[in-house]
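RECORD TYPE: inverse folding
INPUT: C-alpha cells
STRUCTURE:
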C-alpha cells in the first residue's frame, strides 16, 4: 500500500443534480479521484458533478451495478492504481466525511473490506422505509444461516482494497451488487468488518424504495443473489 494510501471514490448517480455537489463537497481531501458514474441521467447530474471536481463517466444502461462496473473500468485504465476504493451513494443520505472511519480498519491492516452499517449507526427518522429495514434484516439473516456471513446491513457506503475487489470478479448489473460483493468476499476468505455510519433522508425520490416496483425488484434480486451463491 502506498504511503499515504491512494483512495478513489465511486458514486453511481441517476438524476442527482441537486445532491451530487453536496456529496462531492463533503468527501475528505485525501481522496485522489471521485468517479461519478452518470447512469443515463436526464438532468444535469454530469455537468454539476464535473463542476464540483469529479471525474464523470457515462453509462447509458440503467443499473446500479452497471454504473459501478463502468466506474471501475475507468479506474483500471489509470496509470497508478488505487489502494482502496470507496463506494458511496449520490443522494446525500450517507455522510461522506465518515469515509475516514470507514477506511481505518483497512489502514490498520485489520480488514480487506468494511461495510458502513446503518443498522449500527444513527438513522434519521424516515431515512429508511419499512421495506428497506425489513429487506436488510431478511437478507443479512439469510446470509448468516445459508453462508455463515455475519453482516448487519447491505449498506451502499463501503470500502474495499482495490486488488481484492478485482479478485471478486463482480458481475451484477443492478440491485444485487452490494450483496454479491459481501457474499463473494465472505466466500473468498476476505477479512471484513462493519463500522457504524449515520444515515439521513435522501435528497429527491429513491429509485428503489420510492416505488412499489423498485421495492419488489430489489427484494427479488437480493434473494435471488443469495441463492445463486449458496
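DESIGNED SEQUENCE:
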Amino acid at each position: 500500500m502506498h504511503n499515504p494510501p491512494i483512495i478513489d471514490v465511486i458514486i453511481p448517480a441517476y438524476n442527482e443534480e441537486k445532491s451530487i455537489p453536496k456529496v462531492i463537497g463533503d468527501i475528505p481531501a485525501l481522496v485522489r479521484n471521485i468517479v461519478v458514474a452518470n447512469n443515463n441521467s436526464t438532468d444535469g447530474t454530469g455537468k454539476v458533478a464535473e463542476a464540483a471536481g469529479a471525474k464523470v463517466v457515462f453509462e447509458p444502461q440503467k443499473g446500479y451495478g452497471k454504473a459501478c462496473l463502468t466506474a471501475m473500468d475507468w479506474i483500471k485504465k489509470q496509470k497508478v492504481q488505487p489502494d482502496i476504493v470507496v463506494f458511496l451513494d449520490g443522494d446525500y443520505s450517507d455522510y461522506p466525511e465518515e469515509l475516514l472511519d470507514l477506511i481505518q480498519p483497512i489502514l490498520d491492516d485489520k480488514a480487506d473490506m468494511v461495510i458502513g452499517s446503518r443498522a449500527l449507526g444513527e438513522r434519521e427518522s424516515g431515512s429508511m422505509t419499512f421495506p428497506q429495514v425489513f429487506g436488510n434484516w431478511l437478507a443479512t439473516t439469510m446470509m448468516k444461516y445459508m453462508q455463515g456471513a455475519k453482516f448487519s446491513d447491505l449498506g451502499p457506503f463501503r470500502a474495499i482494497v482495490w486488488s481484492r475487489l478485482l479478485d471478486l470478479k463482480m458481475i451484477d448489473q443492478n440491485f444485487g451488487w452490494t450483496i454479491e460483493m459481501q457474499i463473494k468476499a465472505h466466500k473468498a476468505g476476505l477479512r471484513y468488518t462493519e463500522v457504524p455510519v449515520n444515515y439521513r433522508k435522501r435528497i429527491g425520490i429513491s429509485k428503489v424504495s420510492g416505488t412499489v416496483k423498485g421495492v419488489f425488484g430489489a427484494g427479488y434480486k437480493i434473494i435471488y443473489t443469495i441463492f445463486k451463491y449458496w
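NOTES: The chain has eight helices and seven strands.
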